[in-house]
Amino acid sequence: MLNILFRAAIAVSLLSQTAATVPTTFDVVAPRGLDFTLENSPTPQKYLIETMPGGVALLDYNNDGLLDIFLVNGGRITGPMTTPENFGRHDPRYWNRLYRQNKDGSFTDVTEQAGLANAGDGNYGMGVAVGDYDNDGYPDIYVTSYGKNILYHNNGDGTFTDVTAKAGVAAGGWSVSAGFFDYDNDGKLDLFVTRYMDWDTKHSHDCGGNYHTYCPPEEFPATTNILYHNNGDGTFTDVSKSSGIAAKKGRALGVAFADYDGDGFTDIYVANDGMQQYLFHNNGNGTFSEVGLEAGAALSQDGRRLSGMGVVFQDYDNDGRPDAIVTELPREIYGVYHNEGDGTFTYRSLETGLGILSSGSSGWGVGLEDFDNDGWKDLFVAQGHVLDNVEQIDPSLHYFEKPLLAMNHNGRFERVDSAAPAPWAGRGAAFGDLNNDGWQDVVMTILGGRPQVFMNRGGKAHWLTIILRGTRSNRDGFGARVQVNGQTRFATSSGSYLSASDKRLHFGLGSAEKAKVDVIWPSGIHQTLNDVHADQFLEVREPEKP
Amino acid sequence: MIHALLFLALAWQTASPQVTEHMQAGIAAEKEKNFDLSIKEFKQVTELDPSLVDGFLSLGQAYMDEGDYGSAIPALKHALELSPDSLPAHQLLGYSLLSQGYAREAIPHLERLPDKTTLGIAQIQTGQLPEAVANLQKALSEHPNNPDILYYLGRASGLLAKQSIDTLLAAYPDSARAHQAMAENYFVLRRMDDAEKEYKDALRLRPGLPEVHLALGEVYAGAFQWSKAEEQFRIQVKLQPGNAEAAYRLGESLLEQGKSQEARAELVRADKLMPDMPETLYALGKAASLEGDNPAAEKSWTKLLSIEKQSSLAAQAHFGLAGIYRKEGKTAEAKQEMQAFQALQPAPSPK
Question: At A195, phi and psi to the nearest 5?
Fold first, then answer.
């Protein structure tokens, strides 16, 4: 009768969410000119792609010092779909959009003049990755889709050219998050593309009993991720098989990069939905080994599979090592995998307080950023359930949720008011300093609605933002390990869900007015800067010689 | 089962050669599952010798094998007229009547049988729920883990519980117990706001109701409001310091909040109150592990595995042990535990 005495409580979601009475960090604003609507086109047929977009990128595409915003749109879905699929992407309503930031903080839609208008009728948009793959000093854009992906080369004159065919990076199938990183430290950014599952509209079906719902991932076959090696001549080679990446099929949604074992080679953490998470260890010879299980970074503390969606791979407890935080569905608390420094991870969701903050929520885009500049990275999570009718199935769960903002106090997270005026179906999230005031802001996408801009109110604490300028290493410095006054960041624009963040590395300094900066470049060069003044954007150029 | 009980009486073997011939042909056809032929042959037997019980029994059996329970009933009734104490005739007639929905008529026949399964099922249909529960419990003790009996026992118990609650709600709609019952109903429906309200109403009417604090705590726990859950479990523990479940629940709520030290103390108490509960042992190991006390975690999980070897908790214990051994550099042991963990995982989806 043990099961009767200790019957499992029927897991349900929050009765209400409580937030500590801490001063609000953000103002949620609607910048003039940012008029994008994420068209996910929900249908009665419940095509799974409808609930999965869309990405957002913060990048300075014209190098004017101001962050611009690129937003990925879904597409038109008519129910039922016929093949070949036509998502109506020629219609401006379904375009991806690039918004150039003006000096007054407003935005101008430059999509058409930048050459980014029509993403192809056969492509339902998902995510975005940003990186300077040809080291010409201008960030390039890679857009993922259900269908074909597109690589847009930044011409440096405010326009982009679709170079997908030449580059050979169209992928195919259902691509989700992607990211640029330099896995072989050859100074050229390679490209990793996650793919969700082997699914198409023809073989789609809905699930659920009395209520039609989107199907769980197990309904469809797993698939492989793709690794493209940058050849340095504008082309890429698909090395998924030879690198060992394709040896593991999964249901990937999120990806983040960091060198977790300090061997000088960037590793890959992949958030998989409804199964174990993958940690691809970079063997340093062009191959990867999936070590998630043996490293203790694949399952929950209780050995349960997780619905991994978004992931961030940064150091939350200032021990100098990257930890992985994975966002998930309700009844699975967000996973905190603490890097022990010996090649293994310990699940610390309960100890960090994140367990209690997340057990009733569905998390997507995620970032570890020091929003209050106190020297500890805080957590922001875009939230909202997968199922748009979840309340009918379980009244205690919610399709619309407010994002989670949790401040980091010596490695323990505490919820504060995110200032979101309403709950939404949050998905993508990108992080960066939109107004260059030294305080990190957030842009979050929501299904069927306008992107939400969380402008940081700022404060008195000091900060330092570092702009890496690789010379021997890749120009963006992706993969560099940067330490400032005991804090560590691993240079990347990747992580979160479907999104690309400001590549600049932001550090809160608290009361410190000076900082010591240590950079270990992917080339292996170790660079130290002492007595760096706080409250500035500092470009750190990699020495030409060791 | 029915088939095996047939042909106990072998009187037909002394019948006329013609009857014997048809009887043997019917039995042969039955073995071949040619029920149309067996029915035809057994009908011949009953016409040639209307006093032969076995002829009617065999005919009834053949109809049942063909799924024609309605046609079996007259033949079996005739068999009982010829031999009122024939156990096989009572059994077959009871089954046939029950299959046709005549539960009340079936019961006198089923009451004669040593196996009480079908009697319990019939009693569910006639609304004799306490009797049904008693008979199905007896049947279950003779056939442990039989899925049909487990199902019907669960159904009978559920209906009995519902009957009792319906009476409560009708007679005392404003009582504390009525609110408690309503709250439980809402809890099952996951209407947590309503469940919370009803439990609070129950407590307002009878503040001393100890089970309500436990249940209200479970509502909060189910909604992941662990600090509120902790508060209710603490009240429960104060009211009933000897309640192992309350101690376990309090420990669990503390654990979920990352208060591992307090959780561990409460779980140790739960373990003392009711030793060897796998759930407590698992949580105890988890709390110890969170505190970095790997030897204690190892001890709890190893003990759990001595009690449960195949359950999901056992899998979790193996997973936890693998983590401990990995940290301690015991690679072989860690690998062994991971293998045990993986062996207990459900088979992957065929897709």
Answer: -130, 140
